[in-house]
Please model this.
Amino acid sequence: MNDSHYCPHTPEEIQEMLSAIGVATVEELFAPIPAALRAKTLNLPPGMSEFETFSRMQAISGENRQGMINFIGGGFYDHIIPAAVDHLSGRAEFYTAYTPYQPECSQGTLQALFEYQTAICRLTGLDVSNASLYDGGTACAEAAMMALRVTGRNKIVVDGCVSPFSRQVLKTYLFNLDVEVVEIAPQNGLLNRAELTALLDESVAAVLVQNPNFFGSVEDFTALADQVHGAGALLIGSVYPIALGILKSPGETGIDIAVGDGQCLGNPLSFGGPSFGFIAAKKSFIRNMPGRIVGETVDRNGKRGYVLTLQAREQHIKRHKATSNICSNQGLCALRGLIFLSSVGKEGLAELAQLNRDKAEYAKAQLSAIPGVTVLQSAATFNEFTLSLPKKADDLVTGLLARGIAAGVPLGSYYAGAENCLVVTVTEKRTKKEIDLFVKELEVALCN
Amino acid sequence: MSIYFTKEHEWVKVEGSVGTVGISDHAAHELGDITFVELPKIGAVVTQFGVLGSIESVKAASDIFAPVSGKVVKVNDALEISPEVVNESAEAAGWMACVEIANASELQNLMTQEQYNDYLKTL
Amino acid sequence: MQLIYEQSVPGRRGVRLPASDVPPAAALPATLLRKERAGLAEVSELDLVRHFTNLSRRNFSVDTNFYPLGSCTMKYNAKVLENSAALFAPYHPMTALLPGGVALCQGTLGMLHDLGKMLADITGMDEVTTQPLAGAHGEMTGIMLIAAYHAARGNRAKKKYVVVPDSSHGTNPASAAIAGYEIITVPTAPYGDMDLELFKKAMNDEVAAVMMTCPNTLGLFNPHIKEISDIAHSHDALMYYDGANLNAIMGKVKPGDVGFDVVHVNLHKTFGTPHGGGGPGSGPVGVKKELIPFLPQPRIVMDGDGTFQLEVTNPGSIGRTANFFGNFGVMVKAYAYMIMLGREGLIQVSEQAVLNANYIKEKLKPYYDLPYDMTCMHECVFSASKQLAHGVHAIDIAKFLIDKGYHPPTVYFPMIVKEAIMIEPTETESKAVMDAFIEVMIEAALTAESNPQALHDAPLTMPISRLDETKAAREQNVCCAW
Model:
């Protein structure tokens, strides 16, 4: 009986192969494993058909609450995904291939990644991009390690307004290295610039900021870039690609290394992954970049083609001296990002960004009109903003979840003294009707 | 003027108190098409057999070790734009740096041209 | 082929956006805005679809070609796995982190917990974290767990080294370096495994961990593995298992039973999830109970009443190695694969993967040098040294295979084999496919003798011929200039 659905051999074929090898049974092939070490048990359940498997997966999915109205972000955003993204990234020639080690039979993946790198460079206004990292948090960590190499210094200063998840990933990555990570506590949802100035000495390799930040505030870091460069350090900016449809690019700001999470570019929420991280930098830092990079070249006949390049940076050649340990990246998610950006297009991305801001500004005005509710930041915001509530945000969020609304991310778990703060996200997918319902429900919850 | 070699295939040509450093023709050939040479900074102090720089080809990367201790007084900037010069002329135009030799007795730890030629036959 | 940017026409659109149903917001100050639009492509949906469909046709893939890329386990990716992942697309990860949110995510949290249990059973571990996003990420997480273990016992400063065999994947030393360790590399003995005597000499009380792939990158199971574990443990060093080759041993031997303390599993290799042209993968990490206190947060735990909770405030934890719960969509596919194949199915996977590799090994042995001639596990490593006598390199054989419609095996890895050709057929390939591949490999060997130039000229049937990699590395043209 053929238990494994995808092992094609008939018993006769197995016998022929065993004869060719010169053994009597498959079990003999496992003789190199000493008998004393052999597995005694395997407690997995018996297998099932494809139909039963899918039914089981449907049942599991059904155990999650369906149809929530999302006003939550925190790094993952509920945006439209054009139908073409699923269909094109679902081409098996893309998704059942692997890293393009053999360029002649991998030009599809290689050219797509070159186009992806181009999209990231144009979006960020920087010169070079790699072919993707794991996610936004690990991209922050990789950028910090890159800055340590470039400057030869050993301190990273992090704005406390950067996502608490990304900050935690950064700290975990750097914990075992001889590196000091200093965090600056936020000031009304903004970078505390006075404290940064006090910290900026010659031991600082890089300053990490996020725009828009975890509170939703949008800041202009142009002067900060000059200040950081004056101290011989690099400025790393974590950015939100959809917002770059309208917001000042990292390149225009003077940021040296831009990073971020590409989930919002055509990748479903999918309970947190897979998405992809991106990293772009000024050209002079290219040899310190982590991960795969695709470069243009020509073949023997002078025809344009693409290859993995600058591989001498990478783990398979440089081993412990590599710029990163990354091998597999998130290539297919990056491809989805490219298809998304190419579908929405140059004008479309700006319009999409504007639509996000329009919806969020409407929600902000309606919500802050509720008695006792104010907006924390005086700064500009994009599609997220922070409300100051007259009650504990945790309790309100729990109550609204039961009403089918994910009202936002309460900040009490992430910032001391922020128990009444709630970060609300409004993407283009939220309708005026849904926003109005949220306002009404919050009003009711506050009266109780 | 005399030339000495290391087991890691660097050479140093000694003229007075200054040693000019590079990698051997053999090493350049083994690496294949060289795509990048990382040079030390002028003023850097290197120690014998410590890292002086690095060199990359399409499929390999290796460190360049200093054959002698001392201060780097000159580097071959041209290699930053044209690393292929190392393939074309590893033991002349492809030199990498000049080092003010701190301790001439260290030269005893190196091989002469003849010894190096014999060493290559053993590889 | 043109780049998508070269097909761009100002004003074209691929997709129409929803109309606004709210008043326009007041404009942002100019200091916050970009001066020019980002230079993205402007194409119609049909332009877009043709472009990417035609690009896809320039790839070899598992669904179109035999893809025996050693060390990567390019098995068939079942279609029902794709359908299963799509069921979970709408769930926001932050929901689980909201107060009261776990109650709304019992399906997804429960699945991750159950997946961890099954992986723990297969690998002989006590608990699994699903957070690591790929194999190398799992390695890094695992070595950080080991660092935290030693630190908790007051040995943070004392433990300085990680030992790896010279046949290891490059990610092993690279991951250990991020965890702050220096590397000791032990050579391979003529019997194809890490040299036991040299290993004993290399070991001392300053070693934090020994990282092994077993079966190793030569496809050989190390018969001394228990002895190696015992020696490592006698120096208070932990054993790390690189799960890249787990496809060979499911149900046959459990890493935990032979002394490994930490394991990562590549779901995209062993558990049938697609490789995506480079990723996403998924690299869950299993540990013995002594290391549970250090696992990353949030950790999924089951309450006495069977409900799933998140532990988010364990001060001993190494923290987070990724933003949320790992590559969830990949784990859905791996989970569906495991429950579908079940116990017997997974054992059969390993048996037939090993059968197929040995079959190819025996059939090609007369034509190619086999430096370690013994029973292999799921892959076999030849050397093109015989062909080198005719001036033919492993890369020439690889390019010849492309012309014949085969994705080449891994070449030039492991680095300890000169002109290495590493073949991993996987269990999903039929005898007929392998026989045809064997014929072509024999043809390549014969052509190497009779007409080496034909191999140097290959490939001739692809849209492009061999590419100038030196030019790419020197010019660094990594972004379309406009």
Notes: The domain at 82-339 of chain C is CATH 3.40.640.10 (Aspartate Aminotransferase; domain 2).
